[in-house]
Amino acid sequence: ELKVEQNPLFLSMQEGKNYTIYCNYSTTSDRLYWYRQDPGKSLESLFVLLSNGAVKQEGRLMASLDTKARLSTLHITAAVHDLSATYFCAVDPLYSGATNKLIFGTGTLLAVQP
Amino acid sequence: GAVVSQHPSWVICKSGTSVKIECRSLDFQATTMFWYRQFPKQSLMLMATSNEGSKATYEQGVEKDKFLINHASLTLSTLTVTSAHPEDSSFYICSATLLAGGFFTYNEQFFGPGTRLTVL
After folding, report:
1. Chain B residue closest in CA terms to A51
2. B116 falls in which pLDDT band (50, 70, 90)?
């Protein structure tokens, strides 16, 4: 059974600080996605990582993928309150056929304190 | 581009009634749509994969007779929760994929805004 685990589940951090969210998965995959979800809302796509060593950055967020370690990271630089949300990683298991299913991680609730 | 809508955005119904949720791809043709359920403070759980013109594929543990999925066109999939009960109250999210072709082609899922179902 494919498992996608995120660490930590809850993160309270001060504005201006840096931190990293980790996403570990248990099967072969070279497609990983990061999403943001605000309370009561649906998902907002942040990053799509399609190969080993992929690194993408947007504003204060940077995501990377290590397919050999089956690990993706979402790094937050100089956090601001607007980044407070729940962040999910999702894995597309390789060889899932043409279905392109996504298995979501447990989620990380990020609260940025002033 | 790649906009997905859901209707209704929220619905309240009495126990025992059926509720239909629509998922539409507004500006592209979606050969595959996915239905997810999310309970409060939990992750998204894939319920089923819906391919246009064929029967949906349900994930293990999801009752296909309770959650009826129809994907009659390339832009519309519907989820009907039959004989709803309070435990079916949840946030239902659909997504749609534009299949570009090829087994290893990258196909991003585009998510709808979600439908909050409350069963009294």
Report:
1. B106
2. very high
